[in-house]
Design goal:
This protein is mostly beta strands. About 0% of the residues lie in helices and about 55% in strands. A hairpin with a 6-residue loop joins strand 4 (about 35-40) and strand 5.
Amino acid sequence: QVQLVESGGGLVQAGGSLRLSCAASARAVSIYTTGWFRQAPGKEREFVARIIWSNDRTYYTDSVKGRFTISRDNAGNTVYLQMNSLKPEDTAVYYCTAGLSVLTYDYWGRGTQVTVAS
């Protein structure tokens, strides 16, 4: 079982920054990847970024490249999403997710709201 707890959302002006955190606790399983998705009102959930635990390789959707950075702490249990140069279109509920293999995202957090005011 994996539990994911997100924090760090809030309201920020366009051009500002926020850092999201995702604390992961895993029992009897090995996490392959942790990532972030987001869902804006009236839209489908979309991939934002992910990090592979074995080699810290990272992947991003094109719209956030150069602005967002995903990373892990030294202990490996907390994953961060540093979001810079935020835009109103980044407004969404951001969800942390963990996958046990390259093909799946098996566990989800409850989400944290990010609102970017223009």
